[in-house]
Amino acid sequence: MPVTRTARTPTIVPFAPDHLEGAAVLLAERHRAHRLAEPGLDQRYEDPDLAREEVGALVRADGASGVACLVDGELAGFVVGTPRDASWGPNMWVESAGHAAVDAELVRDLYAAAAERWVADGLSLHYAMLPASDDALVDAWFRLGFGHQQVYAIRETPSAGERSAGAPGLTVRLARREDLDA
Questions:
Q1: What confidence tier does 154 reach under pLDDT thresholds 50, 70, 90?
Q2: Quick one: pLDDT band at residue 1, thresholds 50, 70, 90?
Q3: By CB count within 10 A, which of 37, 70, 78, 111 is most buried?
Q4: CA–CA gap between residue 29 and residue 44 (Å, rounded)
Q5: Alpha-carbon distance 68 to 79, whole Å?
Q6: What is the phi/psi pair of residue 78, to 5°?
Q7: What is residue 3's predicted lDDT score, i.e. its pLDDT?
Q8: Of 87, 119, 84, nearest to 98 (Cα)?
Q9: How confident is the model at residue 36 (pLDDT cuts 50, 70, 90)?
Q10: Judging by beta carbons within 10 Å of its beta carbon (0-12, 13-18, 19+), is residue 26 exposed, middle or buried?
Q11: Do 92 and 84 contact (CB within 8 A), yes or no?
Q12: β-bridge partners, 12
């Protein structure tokens, strides 16, 4: 008689303190993958202990809320949002450390579940920060209706010889107070 396997059923639940360990591992793994695309990122966040601190800080923030996905009792993904000041309107931000999943597509379901509560609470403006180098993750968020608003970037500093090779008549210097009007 053949052995039948039960289907792995994902369950989305409110994010709770006992999800923090699994979230830290997922975030550290996501960061490790992103460092392959951009080695200039800080390698320290590949350590689940540091990743846990980042997620924990978000979870403890005033007004924070989110969801987690469990598959066979194991954390498969999470989305946690935090509000910023009122100048952004009634908002929730999913910071860089506020999401990770075993599969980018899972983020879509997690966001949908988290957003239900946020919208019900009157928080209708949502922002998400994610690495541009992760095509699957960017695609998943874009298909939720998110767009491109800001870019944070890093680059290697040029050598001294490269720094002096500017356009003729161009001077590069530190900004000064008298530059404000310009």
A1: confident
A2: very low
A3: 78
A4: 12
A5: 7
A6: -155, 155
A7: 46
A8: 84
A9: very high
A10: buried
A11: no
A12: 69
Q: Are strands 125-128 and 99-101 parallel, antiparallel or unpaired?
A: unpaired
Q: Which two tokens stand for residue 73?
A: 């009792």
Residue 94 has which token pair? 């999913």
Q: How confident is the model at residue 106 (pLDDT cuts 50, 70, 90)?
A: very high
The two tokens of residue 89 are 């309107």
pLDDT digits (tens, 9 = 90+) for 39-98: 988 999 999 999 999 999 999 999 999 999 999 999 999 999 999 998 999 999 999 999
